[in-house]
Amino acid sequence: MKVTKFSGELVLFDKEKLQHSLRKSGADEDAVFQVMHEIDKQLYEGIPTKKIYKLAFQLLKNFSNAHAARYNLRSAVQALGPAGFYFEKFIARLFEIEGFQTQTNLILDGKCISHEVDVLLKKENVVSMIECKFHGNQDAKSDVKVPLYIL
What we know:
2 domains; alpha+beta; three-stranded antiparallel beta sheet; 7 helices
């Protein structure tokens, strides 16, 4: 059976991919089995993946709000927009929880130009920089030009 991706592309439905995402939310095997069973009954040729996702989210909520929230993480992160500033703060906070010292929105002078670094990390005398790319919709893509320019 084929499904319609967000981009409009038709692809074969991959049950394993959906099961994997349900397991990653923390759902146990019984919940995954029951959600998959319900979704199987409602599948049709060309069904949008967005509809499958919404259905899986609603069914998962019947088992656990916490698992449903983890399953819905992409939408939660998108709600941080439309500007990337809050996303950068969120990423910095994740690293702080892991014991890093962080700074955001720094302007560093290079040989030729100044560049804004979204997140600067330091832990045990190792300094790293993060270039965040926040996209408010699923079909946006980032290429490697910006990180290569920074390098």
